[in-house]
Specification:
The chain contains five helices and seven strands; from the N terminus they run αββββαββαααβ. It is an alpha+beta fold. It has one domain (6-123): Pnp Oxidase, Chain A, CATH 2.30.110.10. It has a seven-stranded antiparallel sheet, sandwiched between helices.
C-alpha cells in the first residue's frame, strides 16, 4: 500500500474527525460519510467497525477496496485493506487505548468483534 506523507498523517493522527465513505457496488459513487475513530501506528492509518464485520461501511470497504475519507480538514481518495496480523492488532489496540482513554466506547472497540473488522486506510491516486 502507498504511504501517507508525514505531514498529512501527523495531522490525521492529531484529530478525531475522520469520516469514511467506501465506494458503492458501482465503484464510482460513495456512500454517506460516516464518522469513525482512527488511530495511527508507525505512520499507517487504521480504523475499526464498531459493529464488527457486520457493519455496512466495513462490508463495502472490504468489497470495493476503495473510497474516500475526510480528515483534518481535507478529503482523500483512499484504498482499504483488512488487517489480520495479531501482533499489529495488539499495537492498534494500544493506540486506541492511548487516544481514546476514558471513553465508555473504548472497551467495545478493542473487543473481538471490532478487532476482527480492522481496516488499514492508505492514500491512492486522485479519484
Amino acid at each position: 500500500m502507498t504511504v501517507w506523507p508525514t505531514e498529512t498523517i501527523e495531522k490525521i493522527a492529531a484529530t478525531d474527525d475522520l469520516h469514511i465513505a467506501p465506494y458503492r457496488a458501482d465503484g464510482k459513487t460513495t456512500g454517506t460519510l460516516t464518522w469513525i475513530w482512527s488511530v495511527v501506528v508507525d505512520g499507517r492509518l487504521f480504523v475499526r467497525a464498531y459493529n464488527g464485520t457486520r457493519g455496512r461501511w466495513y462490508r463495502s470497504a472490504i468489497a470495493q477496496r476503495a473510497g474516500k475519507i475526510t480528515a483534518a480538514g481535507s478529503a482523500h481518495p483512499v484504498a482499504f485493506a483488512p488487517v489480520d496480523d495479531p501482533e499489529l492488532n495488539d499495537r492498534i489496540d494500544q493506540a486506541y487505548q492511548e487516544k481514546y482513554a476514558g471513553s465508555p466506547y473504548l472497551p467495545p472497540m478493542i473487543a473481538a468483534g471490532p478487532r476482527a473488522a480492522t481496516v488499514e486506510i492508505a492514500p491512492r491516486g486522485a479519484a
